[in-house]
């Protein structure tokens, strides 16, 4: 159980796919204009990760190494398309704002990476935990960045206004430069935080 | 329930996948690269710092040669005994125990013991200082004390204290990266030993000159040579040297050394040794 | 920059580049400009062998400047430009989409077939000494 | 042993009197006419804004030195110049909190994060200006009308678009009607603090040039290329494109070309590099002015060219190396 | 040969799965799209309506909203202009059967955030309610008209006004009678 | 007025002693004669503690092709031969002589001048070699070697270097005023070695008007051209001087003789004259003692081996506030760390200064102002060299022309960030050398 | 003429205004990962150019040749990614055959491309924007040029930053993002250039 906990938690900070492993950065930067988008993207990715991890954990024995990567990509793409269709059906607004980045989950290197590095070598149970842990870690990073950007850039949080309509918010944070700067700051912050914690130990 | 998209979807994707499979199958047959899995395994076991202490330019190279020759005398000083065991297990041979070596600074001329020359204000680097003049310490064989070597140590085993380099023997892996970094050559490599006596001085000046320059300098007075029953001390070029293979750690030399700050050192952490001496 | 000789030809040799870097400051291998991590896969390249190194020798080698860029230009950008040109030509000849597409694929294939003869033993590396 | 306490350092033992301080304070001095002019045109508010901007820059510099454990550099003049230039780059009625935010961006996010003086890749004052422009477009594009000798604080004064803004939105005729070239030259037009008076700026620039703190390669290529490029299109279609003279005196072109593109930290060192840099700045400025969404392009142009500086440096470096390789040393 | 078979099988399985899911979601997606439209129209109409009829003409698309009695309660028309500060602005304009504006919603724009994008803010939109082609001088105040322009975004304001006029004129063409009433 | 093409600076001249005639310094109580007074291998000692020597007697014998003889600079007894601080900063084998006060020349030395015209080339070069003459302009290259270039190199231009471009220094200036005949004769001897066609020049900076006049009046009749040079540092550096006078450029890796040129210092010319005509070995030289911290700045003629301490006492002692003593000029000299160091054949000056505000780490970061590039006479990019040296990328730095730097110090002089540019360059050179040594070992 | 000026707009837009990296956020992983050295960046850029252009062309043909006629547009993602993956593999085989030595010189670039989302992204955008075949190809090629521009500028800055005294927590990645932020700030100057 301890092992499971460990697998589950490491995706948050220690091996966070975004801030530590720098994987799947494009959606992170692109869709984090509002917290809702961030959350949506994170959960969609988690779903794909979970699905593909499960399938791959179950089927990896049957897949010969030569066609491993193409098969994995097929599996991942299937789940991505499913998510895409589901979002289109049940949350058209989200679909509109996430746009092209839903299909791009396919190339989120994190997913292929987890499939290769974890799911194909570990059992179903651990793969599920890993998927959820990593997915939530991804979502966590997205949420952090998107809240940062939404609060500073639009003056709202989850679309709830924090300041009056006429107040000047720092618009750059809603624009591309703000995405880069925000992520840079978050990583730098986590770096020094981690160092401080390490020093304390 | 078969939807209208079902057949084209399955057919097109299936055929693309089939083509792809064919290509990959063909390729993997055609371009298969034979690689000894053992090398990869060993490579993963090795420390991977590519420090060169083993005599090969990289850990991977070491692994390759080891797999090829199964030469049990090859050692990785960084990994130490543990690693040797592991490597041996993997290869099914008994590896030679690497004799762990450590860097030793042959100088005790810190800011208290060594007398200074003019203050040095140039680039704070041992090479730059010695290239400008004899250096901040009168003794030109000394540890210059600007710490150029520290950056070369991958393992954080060196630190500067009171104008002298101190080597953390626990961290030092004997990779020898610091040796070429030092302009005065006061760092040498010696086998790691629990108890070891060294003449911690590098000065080849005559006794009088040495004494003038430093309280901890070896003045080549021959006392230790005479008292040593094992002929383990020789004097070369006005400097005593303990031959480690012969030294039995009897400690007699340390009793007779007349220098103000004993230039013979019971080799542990220098600081501890000093404290011991003080008490 | 060090390498191991895998195979020798008349005036060339196939060498495997060894990644070295003992300095902790840099994360990448000092043996090539690729910024590879020292642990990544070895690369074997063809090199001029003036010093007559033999198989198994450890050699020092030099890389002609911008080897990767030159290789990429010859191998990728040249053919790609031809591909696009042929698309343009096909387009101006009022080909159909399918036709012009396959026409340019054909051009690409032909380009590579021709290149194969020219590039067989082009190399941007020189062995400079035996270690 | 010695009666004197000798110190050993390396030759040369004499050094010129130039220092970072002298360079920076001279730049500040060169900007003084433009600053005085801005106070004359926009009154007390301009003065308050300038002082706040400079002080906040120096304060951030001090804070960063403290935070990074570096020797104190807040009085070396570079923060002063950055602050002054930032102040000259914003409208006189910009809310003070925005000014301080700009200082933060300049000193902390553009200078110290990259390592401090000498290491920054981008021009701090310009990054701050563009940051403000994009974050607070309304505040950054409504300029107070110049009101010479009005020493009030312009709480709610009349604002207007700058000549370039009018050019962009209302076309050439309106823009030309809004000012005479002489207005532009003396500076009695709307604009940021230091953008208005070509005369005051040029006086300062000539001083800097005379003192050899700047060379004229960059400014002249910028001015020249903007002149030629806008001139070309003016000839083609004078109805759509304003005359090159109009482009010369309006907006931040002179301030940018002579004081900001010349920042040596963020511009190339070699002469050909400087020419290339200037040409790039000029063309980009003209393109943005003629067809872009923003009325003024010089800030963006300089920032974009800043990012090319490492490549230009690299070009010089490679050439140096190639040259030295060609003539191998004889043993 | 196994790899090929496996890959093909994976491909076929994926495709089948997808086809099934697609089949299942086709309807919901269509409904969702409809729903989106309806929601948008609901936002501009201040009243609930019962059914919607979509009319596509050569120039544009418009929607008629009916109440339970099958009487037209409102018309929503897609209209656009290229004259925004950054080009295209698309709006969905809602008018009552007597061709008074009920409201509008911006469907697409690229105006500067913080300036031109205020055309989608209630404060600006509010003033259009109740205006008709006739009762308003469709110029901005600056040019002597009735429309309050946004500070520092006159161009966007003008563009919106123009788009609205275009929409109103289109409706007038479509429903000449009702306007005559 | 001629000058070199690229770069150069003009530091304050501070030539306090230009009107002070050369004063002869008496024999001190002890002499420490270094056996390493030249470029190349140190001389081999040929005396032992206790030997009696006469003035001018050989005490160190040239050891190898590039090396030079060393002679006793006074008569007395050898006290010891041991390592001793050297003005170069390090220890060198040094012969200590306790003078007997007689200052008595050995047999056959320092005779009355004879006419040299009958001497053969070999004779002349042999005499120069025996007299232990080395370049007195700073580098100390054995003159006999320089005067016998490989036969395939044709020398057509001989230049006497009277630029004395370093601030403070006036030794050459005084020499030009006080010994013009010897200089001209020396130059004639050198020129004669290269046959009739070689043109002879004397290059003098324009701030020494009197010297230009004096030498013009002595030299013009002998077919020697005195060239007035713009006062600009480093006008006296060999490559720059050649460029100024002939317009030729010594390319990286070339030596002056590759371009048909030969440059000698003024004092070297005098020494050559004395060696050839008077059989006088090089045992003394003119030294400028200057700086704000010395009691009486002077030009003195001192024996080789006189310690800095003795000289400072002779010149009115140094002040308490002295914190740097420099051997040589302020641009190229070296700070000495003890007053025990002796002067050697190449010591042209000795400065006592209070370098205010020198402290550790006054270096700041490069602000890329480009001044160093503008002033570098060798057309280098000093800032880049220093940066690369700081990064310790020694392969890279060699490609940037490290070897071409003459270490003139102009770049460091102008740098507003007070970077130790030359020092970084010297540092890189030292490490590059060390690496090459280790590689070949 | 009109067509040409249309293409010109597409080109300017692809390189400057809607730069893949700075405005569209595509290909960020290689932008950060392979920009440590200039040469590497350029080599990677070329490889991306090749694959991006050809993948977009094939994608176009696939989309309008198979997906649209059979009404299986929902298979777009899976088809495209399969095509890209196999294209990369195919290119690898071909290049290896053509010149093994040169292929090895750029060995590590190609496999990395499969997971570069810019490739798939650009192929999808070309479809989304309803570009014609030629426009799609031109768009893809110049998007790649935009990528090269971005990655080159960034590599230059990063090489310079190796000498710089960047505060510890900002070393490497964070300062890379800050530079990218300022770069994209500067590139916003191009906004409005193409309406
Ligand atoms: C960065 C920038 C962005 C702008 N964006 C817009 C915009 O989105 N909409 C607009 O109408 N004008 C925009 N403008 C134009 C100016 O604000 C212009 O002065 C204004 O539209 C006309 O002035 P007025 O509204 O104050 O009368 C922009 C100007 C700048 C400098
Ligand atoms: C290793 C070495 C060899 C030299 N060989 C010769 C030579 O053969 N002939 C010559 O005229 N000068 C030779 N030079 C002398 C230099 O050209 C130069 O004159 C000398 O170093 C003094 O230069 P300076 O006082 O300008 O620094 C040599 C110098 C060095 C360092
Ligand atoms: C920067 C620099 C400045 C020099 N200045 C002088 C000078 O002022 N006078 C001089 O005689 N030699 C000067 N030298 C030495 C000359 O380059 C050259 O070595 C010398 O004139 C050769 O003559 P020598 O062999 O007789 O010493 C300088 C060298 C350098 C590198
Ligand atoms: C000629 C000159 C121009 C300068 N221009 C600027 C400028 O445009 N923006 C700025 O922040 N600093 C400027 N500085 C100051 C300084 O170089 C700047 O703070 C550094 O970029 C910070 O590292 C300038 C300095 C000089 C000497
Ligand atoms: S051991 Fe050597 S390198 Fe290290 S500080 Fe001492 S002198 Fe310097
Ligand atoms: S005498 Fe020995 S201990 Fe003292 S400083 Fe010299 S080397 Fe060090
Ligand atoms: S010291 Fe070297 S680099 Fe500096 S100016 Fe002189 S020659 Fe140039
Ligand atoms: S003079 Fe100094 S600050 Fe200026 S470029 Fe050279 S090294 Fe840098
Ligand atoms: S997510 Fe876009 S390249 Fe990795």
Observed structural traits:
heteroheptamer, C: 131 residues, alpha+beta, five-stranded mixed barrel, 5 strands, elongated, D: 331 residues, mainly alpha, Ammonium transporter fold, globular, binds flavin mononucleotide, binds riboflavin, binds FE2/S2 (inorganic) cluster
Q: Any idea what the shape of chain D is?
A: globular
Record the strand order, biggest sheet of chain F: 1-14-13-17-15-16
Question: Which architecture of chain D does the CATH hierarchy give at level 2?
Answer: Orthogonal Bundle
Helix fraction bin of chain F: 25-40%
Evaluate the radius of gyration of chain F. 21 Å
Strand content of chain F: 15-25%
What would the average pLDDT of chain D be, to the nearest integer?
A: 88
Which hetero ligands occur in this complex? Answer: flavin mononucleotide, riboflavin, iron/sulfur cluster, FE2/S2 (inorganic) cluster
How would you summarize what this structure contains?
Chain C is α+β, with helices and mostly antiparallel strands and 131 residues long. Chain C has helices at residues 67-92, 97-119, and strands at residues 2-8, 12-18, 43-49, 58-63, 125-130. Chain C has two domains: 2-65 and 122-130; 67-118, no CATH class.
Task: Please characterize this protein's 3D structure.
The structure holds seven protein chains of seven kinds. Chain A has about 200 residues and is an all-alpha fold. Chain A has one domain. Helix content of chain A is about 70%, strand content about 0%. The two termini of chain A are about 25 Å apart. Chain D is mostly helical. Chain D is about 65% helix and about 0% strand. Chain D contains 14 helices and three strands. In chain D, helix 4 packs across helix 5 and helix 10 runs antiparallel to helix 12. The radius of gyration of chain D is 21 Å and the shape is globular. The model of chain D has no long low-confidence stretch (mean pLDDT about 90). Chain G is built from nine helices and no strands. Chain G has about 200 residues and is mainly alpha-helical. The structure holds flavin mononucleotide (3 copies), riboflavin, iron/sulfur cluster (4 copies) and FE2/S2 (inorganic) cluster.
List the helices and strands and how they pair.
The complex is a heteroheptamer.
Chain E: H1 2-44, E1 51-56, E2 61-66, E3 72-84, E4 87-95, E5 101-109, H2 122-126, H3 154-174, H4 176-180
Antiparallel strand pairs in E: 1-2, 2-3, 3-4, 4-5
Chain F: E1 22-24, E2 31-34, E3 44-45, E4 52-53, E5 58-61, E6 70-71, E7 76-85, E8 91-99, H1 121-130, H2 143-146, E9 157-162, H3 171-178, H4 180-192, E10 199-205, H5 209-219, E11 224-229, H6 238-246, E12 261-265, H7 266-278, E13 284-290, E14 298-303, H8 308-314, E15 324-327, E16 334-336, E17 349-353, H9 371-375, H10 382-390, H11 394-399, H12 410-414, H13 421-440
Parallel strand pairs in F: 1-14, 9-10, 9-12, 10-11, 13-17
Antiparallel strand pairs in F: 2-8, 3-5, 4-7, 5-6, 7-8, 13-14, 15-16, 15-17
Helix pairs in contact in F: 3-5, 4-7, 10-13
Chain G: H1 2-17, H2 28-33, H3 38-67, H4 76-98, H5 100-105, H6 109-114, H7 117-128, H8 133-163, H9 173-187
Helix pairs in contact in G: 1-8, 3-4, 3-7, 3-8, 4-7, 7-8
GO cellular component, one term (chain A): endomembrane system
Enzyme class (chain A): translocase
Pfam family, one (chain A): Rnf-Nqr
């Amino acid at each position: 159980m301890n092992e499971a906990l460990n697998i589950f938690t490491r995706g948050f900070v220690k091996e966070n796919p975004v801030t530590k492993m720098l994987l799947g950065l494009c959606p992170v930067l692109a869709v984090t204009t509002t917290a809702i988008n961030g959350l949506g993207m994170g959960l969609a990715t988690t779903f794909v990760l979970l699905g593909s991890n499960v399938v791959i954990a179950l089927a990896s024995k049957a897949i010969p190494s030569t066609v491993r990567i193409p098969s994995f990509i097929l599996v991942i793409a299937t789940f991505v398309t499913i998510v895409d269709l589901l979002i289109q059906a049940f949350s058209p607004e989200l679909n509109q704002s996430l746009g092209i980045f839903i299909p791009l989950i396919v190339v989120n290197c994190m997913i292929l990476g987890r499939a290769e590095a974890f799911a194909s070598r570990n059992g179903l149970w651990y793969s599920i935990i890993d998927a959820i842990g990593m997915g939530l870690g991804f979502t966590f990073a997205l949420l952090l960045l998107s809240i940062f950007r939404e609060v500073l850039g639009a003056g709202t949080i989850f679309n709830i206004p924090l300041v009056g309509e006429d107040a000047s918010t720092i618009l750059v944070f809603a624009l591309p430069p703000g995405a880069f700067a925000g992520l840079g700051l978050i990583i730098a912050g986590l770096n020094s935080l981690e160092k401080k914690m390490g020093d304390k130990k | 329930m078969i939807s209208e998209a079902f057949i084209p979807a399955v057919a097109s994707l299936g055929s693309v996948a089939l083509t792809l499979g064919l290509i990959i199958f063909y390729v993997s047959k055609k371009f298969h690269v034979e690689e000894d899995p053992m090398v990869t395994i060993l490579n993963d076991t090795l420390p991977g710092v590519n420090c060169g202490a083993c005599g090969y330019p990289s850990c991977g190279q070491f692994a390759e040669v080891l797999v090829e020759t199964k030469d049990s005398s090859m050692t990785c000083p960084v990994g130490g005994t543990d690693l040797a065991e592991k490597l041996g297990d993997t290869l099914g041979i008994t590896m030679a125990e690497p004799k762990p070596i450590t860097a030793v600074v042959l100088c005790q001329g810190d800011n208290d013991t060594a007398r200074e020359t003019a203050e040095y204000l140039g680039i704070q680097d041992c090479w730059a200082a010695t290239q400008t003049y004899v250096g901040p310490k009168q003794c030109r064989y000394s540890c210059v004390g600007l710490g150029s070597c520290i950056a070369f140590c991958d393992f954080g085993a060196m630190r500067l204290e009171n104008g002298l380099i101190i080597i953390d023997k626990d961290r030092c892996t004997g990779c020898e990266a610091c040796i070429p970094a030092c302009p005065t050559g006061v760092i040498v490599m010696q086998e790691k030993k629990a108890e070891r006596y060294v003449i911690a001085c590098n000065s080849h000046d005559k006794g009088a000159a040495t004494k003038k320059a430093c309280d901890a300098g070896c003045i080549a007075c021959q006392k230790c040579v005479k008292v040593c029953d094992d002929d383990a001390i020789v004097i070369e070029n006005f400097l005593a040297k303990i031959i480690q293979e012969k030294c039995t750690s009897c400690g007699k030399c340390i009793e007779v050394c007349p220098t103000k700050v004993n230039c013979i050192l019971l080799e542990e952490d220098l600081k501890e040794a000093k404290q011991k001496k003080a008490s | 920059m060090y390498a191991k000789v895998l195979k020798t030809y008349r005036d060339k040799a196939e060498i495997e580049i060894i990644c070295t870097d003992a300095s902790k400051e840099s994360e990448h291998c000092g043996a090539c400009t690729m910024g590879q991590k020292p642990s990544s896969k070895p690369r074997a390249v063809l090199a001029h062998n003036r010093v007559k190194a033999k198989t198994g020798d450890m050699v020092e080698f030099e890389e002609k400047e911008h080897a990767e860029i030159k290789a990429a230009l010859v191998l990728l950008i040249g053919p790609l430009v031809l591909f696009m040109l042929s698309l343009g030509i096909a387009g101006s000849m009022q080909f159909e989409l399918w036709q012009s597409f396959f026409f340019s694929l054909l051009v690409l294939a032909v380009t590579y077939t021709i290149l194969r003869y020219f590039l067989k033993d082009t190399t941007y590396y020189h062995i400079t000494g035996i270690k | 042993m010695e009666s004197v306490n000798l110190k050993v350092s390396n030759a040369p033992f004499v050094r010129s009197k130039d220092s970072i301080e002298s360079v920076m304070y001279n730049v500040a001095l060169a900007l003084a006419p433009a600053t005085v002019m801005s106070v004359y045109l926009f009154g007390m508010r301009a003065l308050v804004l300038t002082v706040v901007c400079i002080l906040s820059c120096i304060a951030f510099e001090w804070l960063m030195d403290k935070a990074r454990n570096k020797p104190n550099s807040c009085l070396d003049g570079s923060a002063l110049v950055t602050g002054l230039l930032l102040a000259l780059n914003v409208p006189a009625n910009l809310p003070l909190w925005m000014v301080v935010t700009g200082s933060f961006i300049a000193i902390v996010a553009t200078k110290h994060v990259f390592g401090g003086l000498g290491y920054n890749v981008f021009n701090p004052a310009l990054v701050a200006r563009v940051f403000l422009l994009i974050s607070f477009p309304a505040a950054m594009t409504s300029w107070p009308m110049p009101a010479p000798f009005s020493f009030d604080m312009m709480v709610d004064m009349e604002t207007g678009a700058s000549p370039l803004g009018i050019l962009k939105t209302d076309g050439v005729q309106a823009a030309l009607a809004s000012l005479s070239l002489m207005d532009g030259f003396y500076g009695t037009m709307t604009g940021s603090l230091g953008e208005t008076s070509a005369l005051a700026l040029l006086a300062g620039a000539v001083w800097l040039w005379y003192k050899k703190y700047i060379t004229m390669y960059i400014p002249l290529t910028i001015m020249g290329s903007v002149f030629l490029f806008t001139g070309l299109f003016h000839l083609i279609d004078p109805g759509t494109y304003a005359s090159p003279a109009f482009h010369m005196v309006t907006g931040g072109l002179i301030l940018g070309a002579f004081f900001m593109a010349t920042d040596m930290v963020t511009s190339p060192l070699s002469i050909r590099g400087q020419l290339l840099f200037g040409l790039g700045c000029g063309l980009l400025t003209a393109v943005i002015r003629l067809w872009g969404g923003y009325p003024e392009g010089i800030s963006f142009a300089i920032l974009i060219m800043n990012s090319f500086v490492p490549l230009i440096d690299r070009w010089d470096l490679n050439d140096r190396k190639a040259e030295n390789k060609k003539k191998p040393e004889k043993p | 040969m196994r790899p090929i078979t496996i890959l093909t099988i994976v491909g076929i399985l994926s495709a089948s799965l997808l086809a099934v899911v697609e089949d299942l979601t086709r309807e919901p997606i269509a409904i969702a799209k409809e729903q989106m439209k309806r929601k948008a129209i609901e936002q501009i109409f201040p009243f609930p309506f019962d059914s919607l009829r979509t009319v596509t003409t050569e120039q544009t698309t418009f929607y008629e909203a009916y109440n339970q009695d099958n009487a037209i309660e409102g018309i929503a028309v897609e209209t656009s202009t290229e004259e925004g500060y950054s080009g295209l602005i698309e709006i969905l304009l809602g008018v009552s059967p007597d061709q008074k504006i009920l409201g509008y919603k911006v469907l697409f724009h690229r105006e500067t955030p913080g300036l031109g994008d205020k055309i989608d803010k209630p404060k600006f939109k509010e003033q259009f309610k109740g205006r008709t082609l006739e009762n308003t001088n469709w110029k901005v105040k600056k040019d002597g008209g009735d429309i309050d322009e946004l500070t520092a975004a006159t161009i966007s304001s003008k563009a919106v006004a123009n788009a609205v006029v275009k929409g109103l004129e289109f409706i007038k063409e479509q429903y000449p009678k009702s306007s005559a009433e | 007025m001629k000058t070199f093409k690229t770069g150069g600076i003009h530091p304050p001249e501070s030539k306090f002693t230009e009107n002070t005639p050369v004063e002869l310094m008496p024999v001190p109580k002890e002499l420490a004669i270094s056996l390493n007074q030249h470029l190349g291998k140190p001389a081999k000692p040929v005396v032992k503690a206790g030997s009696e020597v006469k003035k001018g007697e050989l005490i160190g014998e040239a050891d190898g092709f590039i090396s030079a003889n060393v002679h006793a600079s006074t008569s007395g007894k050898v006290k010891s031969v041991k390592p001793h601080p050297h003005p170069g900063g390090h220890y060198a084998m040094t012969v200590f002589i306790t003078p007997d006060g007689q200052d008595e020349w050995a047999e056959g030395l320092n005779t009355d001048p004879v006419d040299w015209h009958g001497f053969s080339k070999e004779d002349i070069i042999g005499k120069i070699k025996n007299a232990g003459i080395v370049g007195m302009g700073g580098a100390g290259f054995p003159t006999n070697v320089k005067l016998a270039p490989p036969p395939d190199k044709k020398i057509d231009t001989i230049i006497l270097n009277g630029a004395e471009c370093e601030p403070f220094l006036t030794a050459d200036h005084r020499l030009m005023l006080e010994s013009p005949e010897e200089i001209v004769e020396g130059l004639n001897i050198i020129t004669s070695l290269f046959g009739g066609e070689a043109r002879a020049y004397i290059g003098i900076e324009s701030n020494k008007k009197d010297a230009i006049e004096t030498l013009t009046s002595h030299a013009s009749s002998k077919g020697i051209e005195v060239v007035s040079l713009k006062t600009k540092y480093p006008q006296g550096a060999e490559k720059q001087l050649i460029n100024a006078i002939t317009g030729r450029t010594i390319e990286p890796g070339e030596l002056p003789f590759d371009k048909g040129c030969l440059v000698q210092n003024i004092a070297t010319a005098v020494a050559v004259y004395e060696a050839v005509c008077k059989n006088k070995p090089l045992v003394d030289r003119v030294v400028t003692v200057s700086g704000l911290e010395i009691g009486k700045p002077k030009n003195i003629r001192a024996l080789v081996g006189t310690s800095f301490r003795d000289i400072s006492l002779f010149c009115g002692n140094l002040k308490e506030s002295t914190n740097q003593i420099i051997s040589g000029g302020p641009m190229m000299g070296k700070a000495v760390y003890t007053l025990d160091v002796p002067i050697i054949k190449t010591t042209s000056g000795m400065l006592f200064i209070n370098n205010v505000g020198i402290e550790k780490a006054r270096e700041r970061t490069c602000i890329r102002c480009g001044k160093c590039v503008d002033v570098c006479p060798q057309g280098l990019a000093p800032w880049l060299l220093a940066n690369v040296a700081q990064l310790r990328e020694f392969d890279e730095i060699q490609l940037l022309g490290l070897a071409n730097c003459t270490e003139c110090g102009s770049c460091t002089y102008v740098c507003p960030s007070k970077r130790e540019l030359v020092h970084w360059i010297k540092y890189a050179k030292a490490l590059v050398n060390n690496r090459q040594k280790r590689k070949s070992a | 003429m009109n067509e040409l000026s249309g293409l010109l707009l597409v080109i300017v837009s692809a390189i400057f205004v809607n730069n893949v990296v700075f405005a569209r956020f595509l290909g960020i992983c290689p932008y950060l990962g392979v920009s440590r050295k200039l040469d590497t960046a350029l080599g990677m850029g070329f490889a991306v150019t090749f694959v991006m252009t050809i993948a977009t062309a094939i994608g176009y043909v696939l989309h309008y040749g198979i997906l649209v006629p059979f009404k299986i547009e929902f298979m777009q993602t899976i088809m495209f990614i399969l095509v890209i993956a196999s294209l990369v593999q195919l290119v690898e085989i071909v290049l290896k055959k053509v010149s093994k030595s040169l292929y090895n010189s750029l060995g590590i670039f190609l496999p990395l491309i499969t997971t570069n989302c810019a490739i798939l992204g650009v192929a999808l955008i070309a479809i989304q924007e309803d570009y014609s075949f030629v426009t799609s190809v031109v768009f893809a090629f110049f998007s790649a040029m935009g990528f090269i521009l971005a990655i080159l500028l960034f590599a230059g800055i990063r090489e310079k930053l190796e000498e710089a005294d960047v505060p510890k927590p900002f070393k490497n990645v964070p300062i890379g993002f800050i530079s990218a932020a300022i770069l994209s700030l500067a590139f916003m100057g191009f906004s409005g250039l193409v309406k």
